[in-house]
Amino acid sequence: MIRRPRHAMKLLGGLLAAQLAASAMAQESLLTFRSMKPELALELAQAALQDCRDRGYQVAVAIVDRMGITQVLLRDRYAGPHTPETAQRKAWTSVSFRSDTLTLAADTAPDSPQSGARFIDKALMIGGGIPVVVSGSIVAGIGISGGPSGKDDHACAAAGIATVMDKLELDGVD
């Protein structure tokens, strides 16, 4: 049996403790997150676009990642020229403010204390933007523009999310 001096064991124990502490600090210092796969983002956009078509609307649909960067942008044939940018801004607003834009439209009404949020660059407080949430975390945002109202855009976005939610909960995010 090999005997090690006591100070060597203390040194080894100290090194092990330092390594564990560094590992714990690294875990507290780093952030991990989940993001929707591009293929599923496209499927979400297509499902929402189809729902709008079924309702008789020609729209643009934007899907942004959790950071607000566009992953997918679809514009139906007769959707207005303003709809792609509007859809992107609604999707961006939903992930940025962590709320759907229909609610934000009401919460930032001109006489409300939060009305100043309407002046934030890129923010668009009009219904049709919804954050996509999986297990309590935002993984994407969807924005739709071109329906008769923000409520109609919102309904198409919600229907699109419902269409892919089972895939999102299983394996649609990394």
Explain the overall architecture.
It is a single chain. The chain contains five helices and four strands. The chain is an alpha+beta fold. The protein folds into two domains: 30 residues; 133 residues, Beta-Lactamase (2-Layer Sandwich), CATH 3.30.450. It has a four-stranded antiparallel sheet with strand order 2-1-4-3. A hairpin with a 2-residue loop joins strand 3 and strand 4.
Q: How do the strands and helices of this protein lay out in sequence?
A:
Elements: H1 6-29, H2 38-54, E1 60-65, E2 70-75, H3 83-97, H4 101-107, E3 129-134, E4 137-145, H5 150-170
Antiparallel strand pairs: 1-2, 1-4, 3-4
Label the structural class: alpha+beta
Query: What share of the residues does DSSP label as strand, in percent?
Result: 15-25%
Main sheet record: 4 strands, antiparallel
Low-confidence stretches: none
CATH superfamily of the largest domain: Haem-degrading domain
- Our count of helices gives 5
Cα distance, first to last residue?
Answer: 50 Å
- Sequence of secondary-structure elements: HHEEHHEEH
For this structure, the quaternary state is single chain
Task: Give the overall form.
Answer: elongated
CATH architecture label name of the largest domain: 2-Layer Sandwich
According to CATH, the fold-level topology of the largest domain is Beta-Lactamase
Strand order of the largest sheet: 2-1-4-3
Radius of gyration: 23 Å
The count of strands amounts to 4
> How many structural units, i.e. domains?
2
Give the CATH class of the largest domain.
Alpha Beta
Q: Average pLDDT value?
A: 89
What helical percentage do the residues reach?
Answer: 40-55%
